[in-house]
Amino acid sequence: MFDYQFFIEVLVGGLLSGVMYSLVAIGFVLIYKTSGVLNFAQGAMLLFAALTFVSLVERGVPFWLALSATLVIMVVLGITVERTVLRPLVNQSPMTLFMATLGLSYIIEGAAQLLWGTQVHGLDLGIDDVPFEVGGVLISQFDLFAAAIAGTLVTTFALFFRYTRTGLAFRAVADDQFAALAVGLRLPRVWAAVWTAAGIVALVAGLLWGARLGVQFSLSLVVLKALPVLVLGGFDSVAGAIVGGLLIGAIEKLAEVYVGPLFGGGIVAWAAYVVALGFLLVRPSGLFGQKLVERV
Amino acid sequence: MRLSRSLRAAALAAAIAVGTVLPGHADEQFFPLQSYRVGPYAAGGTGFFGGFIDYLNLINIRDGGVNGVKLTWEEGETQYEVERGVEVYERLKSHTGVAAWNPLSVGIAYAMIDRITKDKVPLITVNHGRTDSTDGRVFPYVFPLLLNPYSETSGIVNYVASREGGADKLKGKKIVVLYHGSPYGKETIPIYKLLADKYGFSLEQIEVPHPGNEQQSQWLSIRRAKPDYVVLRGWGVMNPVALKTAQKVGFPVDHIIGNVWSNSEEDVIPAGDAAKGYVAITTQASGAEYPVLQEVIKTVYGAGKGNLEDKKRIGSVYHNLGIVNGILNVEAIRIAQQKFGKRTLTGDEVRWGFEHLQLDPARVEALGAKGLFHSINVTWDNHEGDGRVTFQQWEGTKWKVVSDWIAPDWAFLRPIIEKSAAAYAAEHNIKIRTSDDPPVSQ
């Protein structure tokens, strides 16, 4: 007999895991939307942020001061990347820009280990991961906390982009870079703002993922979780990142539990990519992505 | 002139730092080290290779080498990647007096088996590697010292039996093995099945794909299966995530038994409170209270030549594994010197030393390692050496030993190992050695 309670437990767990994927995906979307760059260094930025924060805390810096200092460092990092890597490569092909961010990811990873060492660290945000039960279904307090943080972050960005001048400029650039330039918007300034925002997202995601995995090198691998989310939701849609994350989280967990045994288990890593690939064939721009129309 | 002098001083300092001397030096025994100090597994690499180098330094500083033969080494960074490991092998294999290779990597070790067999230099895979390489008749140059994966499995089952009140109490129990989705993780699938049949416990083996940073569905399945114990056969980030996710689904942490690559501080510290009470197997106890560790602190770190940047890591699981690995390598050279002379030995002569590496508890105590590890008894056809295991429990800040030294069921395992080795020999057209073969290759 089908165990509905277990099904719901897996589904809820998957949706909450998906929120964590969305957090990483949002960082990609922000940069892709305005500059067309798929920033493969987002995972390395996440590692750098978490490692910086936890290293400061372990050296006796108070929590909020460490958070503020890390935020400043991430802003500086974002602006530096834009100035030194992306600005000189403006008008280069998307593949060139992608390769630049790939190289950047190795540099940031190396710099993080050089600065803060190679040891793994625990990160306690003060939120217990002890579950509570609702109708026989276990729900993680930490996952709910992460969902609330993600919700707050998205709301903040939505308000910022809707009601501020920088946000308006961001939307204009995202809509049409050449038109934005034509009306006098300073593209580099917008890109710097976007890289700063991506740095902030990296910090938030880094702290949440770091609290879950421990702060260690493999944090940078969480980018692999974001890629199918982006394919499903669309590379240029924050809403798509949220919905895509939830869908991928739920699908991969349900697939592992109900389909996995047919293949000997261990399908959670590639099940998400199967779904993403299938979706790519049907709807290449993703659920919420803009359809690309090119004049030839 | 000043610049030239500075450059020479820097070059000399670099040479001392890597422990190298010029090729052709008469009395040196060289260890090429395929270490990993950056990348995802750097925490384990710095601990293990740090401990190994600390012990080699102790022998050089305290004793002037092994019977006057200086121990030297050079590190090549692999980042735990197989191709880089092979590159380092090709670069360093021509050095004078190569004693043995110690890559601490299953992938690199597998890629080296044919090469080291051809070059006639021992390959040490302490606590890991191919189980059937225990059979020295087929793998003359490979040494999975102290513990091969099958012995580890048997040791874990024996420990669970001891907690339940005897092997007969295992009947009807349920054990889930949560394994890393890699050749390493899958190596023990058959032996768990055989042991389940032997003792009558039910078994479920669940894979976690690499790297293992998401395990929600696996642990929900475990929760539904309601096992008595979960064996964690993990690696890297998979371990703390398993402990955290176990807490999320309410599985008791003291019923999770970690394998030998899930037993370090790096595996539990990131999991925070979720790891308190977790139990893991080990071949070497942690802690710095053992005389050999005290000597390392006094002699090596006292001289400013300690390899660990963070002295708090002295006595950690990986550091102590490196120390024990150093003891085993050095003693193999010492034993080989008794037969072949107190000089630089060939790799094949050192191989002979490993094949006579018999350290009983009295000798282990004389080496200052009583309680650090139990004993080893390597022979020409048993390259593991019947290492004993013990179990440690994480208390939140340190490990505490919670069992006696436990012997795996070697009599049960040996025929399985021989069968697998014989199949390998047939497949690779290898002539099986006998005790009548000469001590070293002619």
UniProtKB/TrEMBL annotation, chain A:
Gene Ontology terms for molecular function: transmembrane transporter activity
GO terms under cellular component: plasma membrane
Cited Pfam families: BPD_transp_2 (PF02653)
Top-rank taxon: Bacteria
UniProt-listed CDD domains: TM_PBP1_LivH_like
Membrane disposition: Multi-pass membrane protein
Keyword set, alphabetical order: Amino-acid transport, Cell membrane, Membrane, Transmembrane, Transmembrane helix, Transport
Chain segments annotated as transmembrane: 6-30, 37-57, 63-85, 97-116, 136-161, 193-215, 227-251, 257-282
Subcellular localization(s) per the UniProt record: Cell membrane
Signal peptide: none
Biological process per Gene Ontology, one example term: amino acid transport
UniProt-listed PANTHER family: ABC TRANSPORTER PERMEASE PROTEIN (PTHR11795:SF451), BRANCHED-CHAIN AMINO ACID TRANSPORT SYSTEM PERMEASE PROTEIN LIVH (PTHR11795)
Family membership: Belongs to the binding-protein-dependent transport system permease family. LivHM subfamily.
Protein name: Branched-chain amino acid ABC transporter permease
From TrEMBL, chain B:
InterPro entries the UniProt entry points to: Leu-bd, Peripla_BP_I
Pfam short name (any one): Peripla_BP_6
CDD domains: PBP1_ABC_ligand_binding-like
Keywords for this protein: Signal
Highest taxon above the source species: Bacteria
All copies of domain Leucine-binding protein, residue ranges: 37-396
Signal sequence, start to end: 1-26
Entry annotated with the keyword Signal: yes
Cited SUPFAM superfamilies: Periplasmic binding protein-like I
Family classification: Belongs to the leucine-binding protein family.
Protein's name according to its UniProt entry: ABC transporter permease
Organism: Bradyrhizobium forestalis
